[in-house]
Specification:
The protein contains 18 helices and 12 strands. With 476 residues, the chain is of the alpha/beta class. It is globular and about 75 Å long.
């Protein structure tokens, strides 16, 4: 594979971090000593310890710590609504910097922010996270600063926030003259993308864009190898079945799942319903030889293995060693034993895949893309995408289709997937491929996307993340 998946295209990720509120960095202090002072003799007059060296006696029969006054931690600043607003501004500044510099995704940035502010409670963290993400969703193009973003968001959606500016020692600084009027106005799409959305959706461009920026639920895939959806629903009674994916479950946005016994036991995996439908559309069956050419961390590899009843062979390839390294532990938890990770080294992929040439019953290309279909989960991805980057991705996608086609056996299938709603990455790639590879023709997708040979899923149409899926088969 020529390139690993772009960070914005990441699915929803298992992580689903619930980050929270901010303030000053917690001071570090020396470890407290365990002090068991000797009991005074009966004849000795009781002495009052000096304030500087005051101790708290250990309770008999326990190991309670006694702290000297000089080791006592400083009291954290109060996390008031005004302090939450200032924390959101700081988070937004960090997210903007990461977007400019190609750094971590917003949820990771927020997690790191609060790792240095552990005094913040879960409610404060949640409030700051929600306010920061609301401001991120409001702007299709990056605002000049976190403060400008919050002012612009407040002016359009939450004017009561202005009462927090200058309201206390931990509040945002008071508004300067003309600052409110100069703040950017919310707009959902980058201006340069508006013609592409109009091309893709016509009169429905605006509602499609709005749906891409709504908050997404938490979708899970029940693992057939560990019990299936009935067992998962019994373990998660608050979940509901997804409407189209037969193994899908849906929980409310913000639900923490990573420590639930059903997740730890491999009964469920975090996977959007659209991603589940795309994997099912590939039509994997038991006994097949499958090449997952852009496996990443293995989300679709595991879905394919479940569809194959863990019988056959899946060669899971990627150029990103770190992401591919996550497949092993995930496969072990899911009970998958048929996956074979294979790290590829651009531009030597063809040579490294020579042993599979013409032998795969199914080649799945979940190609690197803009990630426009995942903006519900990664709204700051709009700030990273540029027209030159979109052209680079289109070239990578075309090369991967050509690379993967050489691996397909007679009677096999080539399935192309992107988590994008943009025509240049979806329909236009599907139209151009048979012209470059006259030995291939469109083929029906597997259920439940059959009998179409191509499908576009969007939040507005299907209630899923955005995906384009197309299937091809060799002409016999």
């Amino acid at each position: 594979m020529a390139a690993s998946r772009a960070p914005a295209a990441s699915r929803p990720t298992a992580s689903q971090v619930r980050a929270s509120a901010g303030g000053a960095t917690r001071p570090r202090f020396k470890a407290a000593r365990i002090i068991n002072p000797p009991l005074p003799s009966r004849s000795a007059a009781p002495q009052r310890p000096s304030p500087r060296h005051a101790v708290k006696r250990c309770i008999p029969g326990t190991h309670a710590l006694a702290y000297t006054a000089r080791h006592a931690p400083a009291r954290p600043p109060p996390v008031t609504p005004s302090a939450r607003a200032q924390a959101a501004i700081e988070v937004l500044d960090a997210v903007l910097a990461a977007a400019r510099e190609g750094g971590a995704a917003a949820d990771v940035v927020i997690e790191r922010y609060f790792q240095a502010r552990r005094y913040a409670g879960s409610g404060d963290r949640r409030a700051v996270r929600e306010l920061a993400f609301a401001a991120i969703r409001a702007f299709g193009e990056p605002p000049p600063s976190g403060r400008a973003a919050l002012i612009g968001y407040a002016a359009a959606h939450q004017p009561e926030l202005f009462g927090l500016f200058g309201s206390g020692p931990h509040a945002p600084a008071p508004l300067a003259s003309g600052e409110r009027e100069a703040a950017p106005l919310p707009h959902p799409l980058p201006r340069w993308l508006e013609p592409l959305f109009a091309e893709a959706f016509g009169a429905q461009a605006a509602p499609e864009a709005d749906a891409l920026l709504a908050r997404a639920p938490l979708d899970l895939r029940a693992n057939r190898l560990q019990g299936g959806r009935a067992a998962a629903l019994a373990a998660l009674p608050e979940a509901e079945p997804t409407p189209r994916a037969p193994d899908g479950l849906r929980l409310a946005a913000g639900t923490a799942i990573e420590r639930h016994p059903a997740y730890l036991a491999g009964l469920v995996e975090v996977q959007d319903e659209g991603s589940q439908l795309a994997a099912l559309g590939a039509g994997a069956e038991p006994g097949m030889t499958v090449v997952d050419l852009c496996a990443g961390a293995g989300g679709k590899t595991l879905a394919l293995a479940a569809a194959m009843a863990n019988a056959g062979r899946i060669v899971a390839c990627d150029t990103d060693r770190r992401r591919l390294g996550q497949l092993g532990p995930r496969a072990a938890r899911a009970g998958v034993t048929i996956s074979e990770p294979r790290l590829l080294d651009p531009p030597r992929e063809a040579a490294q895949l020579a042993d599979l040439r013409g032998s795969a019953d199914l080649v799945l290309i979940d190609a690197p893309c803009s990630g426009s279909g995942t903006w519900r989960r990664n709204p700051e991805a709009r700030w990273r995408l540029t027209a030159p980057r979109l052209e680079q991705l289109a070239a990578v996608q075309a090369r991967l289709l050509d690379l993967g086609s050489a691996l397909v056996a007679p009677g096999g299938r080539l399935v192309y997937i992107v988590c994008s709603v943009l025509p240049s990455e979806g329909a236009q790639q599907a139209d151009a491929f048979p012209a470059r590879a006259p030995g291939f023709a469109p083929a029906p997708l597997g259920a439940p996307l059959a009998p179409s040979h191509a499908a576009l899923l969007t939040p507005a149409r299907a209630g899923t993340d955005g995906f384009f899926i197309a299937a091809f088969a060799p002409i016999c």
